[in-house]
Write a structure and sequence with these properties.
155 residues; 6 helices; 66% helix; 0% strand
Length: 155
Amino acid sequence: MDSARHENVTSSAAALGTGGGSAASTRFRLLVAVSGWVALAVTALPGPAPLRWIPVLIFVLFGPGCAALYPQPERLTLGARLEAFALAAPVSLSLGVLTATPLFLVKAFSVTAFLFWLAGFTTVVTLLPGLPLPAARRPGAGGGGTADGDTGSRP
């Protein structure tokens, strides 16, 4: 019974894109990388249609942050997964500001240029390992201990 529960937890973690080298993690990284180029492509649609601005909004809010935070080398605890989810939007917006600022300074800002550079950056970052998360490194973080079952208590 315990091994079945562990197998179920492992498969749900892989489905969230948190497994170190699993097929689900690879698909998640590919989805994040392609999402930027899709956002850039939909800007060619005419008018202010929701089909045009929704993919751009979702990519700018979550794409670069997810690329920077995932994948992690080990299966994440619940606390670390929540931390990664909570940090995805602020990290994405920060990277968006860091992308837009030089474009403004050289008087070359446009939505197309902004999305081009942000999508390129996101694609490159998906090839790198994720940033280390503090909750993933502390023993006992997230209420469930580390990925190997260590709760951090010392004898």
